Amino acid sequence: MYENENPVFDNVDAYLEERLTPPDETLELTLKRQDEAGLPPMAVSPLQGAFLNILAKSIGAKRILELGTFAGYSTIWLARALPEGGKVITLELQDVNADLSQRNFDDTGLADLIEIRRGPAEKSLNILINDGVKPFDFIFLDADKIRYPTYLDQILMLSRPGTLIIADNVIRNGRILDDSGKDPSIRGVRTFLDMLKDHPQLHCTALQTMGCKGYDGFAMMYVR
Ligand code: DHB
Ligand code: MG
């Protein structure tokens, strides 16, 4: 899935991981089970997981929202950033993924910190909005790329000034430049990025990334 043309990108990630992200049974178990379940390696890399963890810790995020649990790998990195009394709410469409993630959280002692909400994220977000829940401090957007524009409108209703939002997969090996409209995921992310232009509520940047997950990137939005 992630075929880097140049092995240096994988090798540098391995070199850095060896120094910066020590072996971790919980995370390794999660990846092993993801693999055994025949799921593609869509989770963030260890270094990216640590990046999300450091960001969430830096802002003292107590309430974290994740869109797209998948096998729970990034969820674990986020849950570990929580202070006492903190919580991650993570949204997952696929029951098989939610089941696997729940098992990972149960078996690694993190279940009390994480609540999985199943079903389409759009629906779960509307429930959170209608319930008038407290705004989230940190939001990781990593669900269906086609719906990034809808999710943006919704997560802004669950934010406050100072909320930090990170969106995964905004570069997609440079395919983000494809303006043909043929790939619905690219179309979704492009519309999402268009919405950020002169956005009255958001201060934004994006970073291109290269490593064991290929060439991709994060968008970063700070709610003013
Ligand atoms: C895909 C989705 C992701 O969230 C990701 O990080 C990598 C790939 C995908 O849908 O292909
Ligand atoms: Mg992703």
Question: How does this model look, in words?
Answer:
The protein is globular, with a radius of gyration of 17 Å. The protein has helices at residues 7-20, 25-36, 46-58, 73-79, 95-107, 121-130, 148-156, 184-196, and strands at residues 63-67, 87-92, 114-118, 138-141, 164-167, 202-211, 214-223. The chain has a 7-stranded mixed beta sheet with strand order 3-2-1-4-5-7-6, with helices on both faces. The protein is of the alpha/beta class and 224 residues long. It starts with 6 loop residues before the first helix and ends with a strand. The chain has 8 helices and 7 strands; from the N terminus they run αααβαβαβαβαβαββ. The model has no long low-confidence stretch (mean pLDDT 97). Helix 3 (46-58) runs parallel beside helix 4, helix 6 packs parallel to helix 7 (148-156) and helix 7 (148-156) packs parallel to helix 8 (184-196). Helix 7 links the parallel strand 4 (138-141) and strand 5.
List the helices and strands and how they pair.
Layout: H1 7-20, H2 25-36, H3 46-58, E1 63-67, H4 73-79, E2 87-92, H5 95-107, E3 114-118, H6 121-130, E4 138-141, H7 148-156, E5 164-167, H8 184-196, E6 202-211, E7 214-223
Parallel strand pairs: 1-2, 1-4, 2-3, 4-5
Antiparallel strand pairs: 5-7, 6-7
Helix pairs in contact: 3-4, 6-7, 7-8
The structure holds 3,4-dihydroxybenzoic acid and magnesium ion.
3,4-dihydroxybenzoic acid (DHB) binds next to loops.
